[in-house]
Automatic annotation (TrEMBL), chains A, B:
Any GO BP: response to stress
Protein name per UniProt: MarR family transcriptional regulator
Domain HTH marR-type: 18-147
SUPFAM superfamilies linked to this entry: Winged helix' DNA-binding domain (SSF46785)
Amino acid sequence: MPSKPAAPITIDAVYAAPGYLFRRMQQIAVSIFMEECKAFDLTPVQYAALIAIHTHPGIDATRLSAVIAFDRSTLGSVIERLQAKDYIERKPAPEDKRIKLLYLTKSGAAILREIIPAVERAQGRMLEPLKPGDRKALMGLLTQLVDLNNEASRVPLRAEDALEHLGKGG
Amino acid sequence: MPSKPAAPITIDAVYAAPGYLFRRMQQIAVSIFMEECKAFDLTPVQYAALIAIHTHPGIDATRLSAVIAFDRSTLGSVIERLQAKDYIERKPAPEDKRIKLLYLTKSGAAILREIIPAVERAQGRMLEPLKPGDRKALMGLLTQLVDLNNEASRVPLRAEDALEHLGKGG
DNA sequence: TGTTGATTGACAGTATACTGACGATCTGGG
DNA sequence: CCCAGATCGTCAGTATACTGTCAATCAACA
C-alpha cells in the first residue's frame, strides 16, 4: 500500500492530532475538576500537592516536584498559596539549611478528607461518556504511554528514586 | 461483588486518576512538540492558530477561539505575538467596527509549510512507545471522549457553528 | 427611532508551566 | 581545611488558561 499523500494544511489535521486531543482533554479535565470542587477552592495541582505531602510527610520541595511531576520553579508559588490557606507548614531541616520540610496542618488534613468524594466524582465524570470497557482500555493505554514517555518531559527525578531517603519503599 | 473499600488517601490513587494522566500527557506532548520545533520558535497553540487562520482566512478572534478550542481572553496575547513575528495581520472589518479580521502574511504561510514536517514528527513521537494497534485504539477513544465531553469546558461555540457565516461548509 | 440586549475585543486578576539564572549551602577530593 | 561541583529554594521572564468586567458597537424590537 502506498503511503498516504501529504495531508493538506488544514485545521482538520490538527483535530486528529494526538497533541491537540491531549490539550483538549486536559482542559476538559481541569474544568470538570474545578466544577466539582468549587466549594473547596483547590486546584488540581494544589490537590495533588496536598495528597503527596500527606503520603510523604516531611518531604522537601524538590522531591515533591518529582513525585507529582511538577516543575520545581512553579512549585514555589503553589506551596505559598497552600501555606497562605493554612493547609501546610514549612519547617527548616535541622541537618541541611537549604531545605524546608513540608507538613500538612490539621486544616490541610481535614480539607483533604472532605474533598476526596468531590474529586472522585470529577474523575468519574471525565470518563463517563465512554462505555465501561472503553474506560478501562483508555486508562490502560494512557498509563502505559505516560510511563513509557516519562523522560520526555522535564521531571528531574523518577518518583521512586526521589523517595529513597524517606524510607517509604514498598 | 462488594464495592471496593474506600481507597486510602495516597498519592498512588492520583497516579491512576484520569485527571493526572491527562495533565501528564499534555506536559509530555508540549515538551516533545517544543523539542521538535525549537528551530521555529512556535508554541503548539501558536501553530494551531496559524493553521486555523490558514484554513479560514479572514476569521475573527472570537470564532478563532472556538475553532481551536482556545479561551477568548488568552487568544489576544497569542495574536499579538504572532503579529509581532509578522506571521499574521489584522484588518478591520468594513461592515462591523468591532471586528478585526485575521490573515496569514507571506512569512506566516512560509513558516507553516516549513514547520509541518517537524510537527508531524512530534505527533508521531508522542505515540511511538505504543504498539501500532494500541495507537489507533487510543486515538479512537480519545477522539470519542473529547467529542462527547466537548461542552464540559468553556468553549463558547462549536467549531462548525462558529464557521457558518464563512461559507466553508463541507 | 430610541432603547435594550447581545457581541467584540480588551483588560485585570489569578494560577499553572517552563527556561535560565542566582546566592546560599552542602559534599567530596586533595 | 579549602575549593570545585552539585543541590536547594528562589526569582525573572515568557506563555498558556480561566473568570470576570468593561466600553464600543451592533442588532432587534417596541
